[in-house]
Design goal:
The protein is mainly α. It is 71% helix and 0% strand.
């Protein structure tokens, strides 16, 4: 029977699929680290108090990239090239979601509208990251090889999501409510499509590595499409609501250790 636990155990137990999984994860986290680092350096004067929180966000993402790389190296593995169709971060950028890398490479200060764009994009993608890590935490929190990493990353992703809620509510109080609502909806609807496409691409690559049968691959594709259908009709709404988190000022301190 296919289940998240059995599927990920199969990926974890095979060196080549584990190497590909960690390489994809490490690449995405490192890109997120760079993006947040650049945003923190370009924050407008009116939002300077956000700069250290954004920098902390970036430091966490860099840390996650190192964690995935360390997991590979403990097995004597090195990162492999990431198939472009599995590059979630870059596919979002090409869809026009978030701040473009070409903008972040400039040395001109961002605007408050840019910060709203960044926070809306982050609120949606951190929802996905938090849910994915919660799933891994449920099944692998005590795993002798990856449990410690899963617990550390899950804690950080929950902090990132809490931070996005709190800061977007603050920006709403400053008069950006209409833009926030519009951007959250746009980001959520784009993200669920890209998540579907990336999931299909990742499973196709894993299937080739692991030699999955045609019926097994078809069942996984059907499951991914079913999730997308649910999200397209109902599920996207969970990504656009805002509520004050129980964990306030979640990124108000320095980044924690690597693992």
């Amino acid at each position: 029977m296919l289940s998240p636990r059995s599927l990920f155990t199969e990926i974890l137990d095979d060196a080549d699929s584990f190497q590909l999984f960690c390489s994809i994860a490490a690449s995405g986290e490192s890109q997120g680290g760079w993006e947040n680092g650049r945003i923190s350096a370009l924050v407008p004067a009116s939002q300077r108090e956000l700069a250290p929180k954004i920098a902390r966000h970036g430091a966490d993402e860099d840390k996650h990239g190192r964690i995935f790389t360390q997991l590979m190296r403990k097995r004597g593995l090195e990162p492999v090239p990431v198939p472009p169709e599995t590059d979630y971060t870059m596919l979002l950028e090409r869809r026009g979601i978030g701040l473009a890398h070409s903008r972040l490479r400039q040395d001109t200060a961002l605007t408050e509208a840019d910060i709203v764009t960044y926070l809306a994009h982050s609120r949606v993608t951190e929802q996905r990251a938090s849910e994915q890590m919660a799933l891994l935490l449920k099944h692998f929190a005590d795993h002798p090889e990856i449990g410690k990493a899963v617990r550390a990353i899950a804690r950080d992703e929950d902090n990132h999501l809490a931070y996005c809620h709190e800061e977007l509510l603050r920006m709403r109080a400053l008069g950006h409510g209409g833009a926030i609502d519009r951007m959250l909806r746009e980001c959520a609807l784009a993200e669920i499509r890209i998540y579907r496409d990336v999931s299909l691409a990742v499973m196709a690559n894993m299937g080739r590595v692991l030699g999955w049968s045609a019926p097994k691959a078809a069942a996984l594709r059907a499951g991914i499409h079913a999730v997308y259908l649910y999200e397209r009709v109902f599920g996207w709404r969970r990504m656009v609501t805002l509520s004050m988190p129980a964990r306030r000022n979640a990124l108000g301190g320095p980044a924690l250790g690597t693992a």
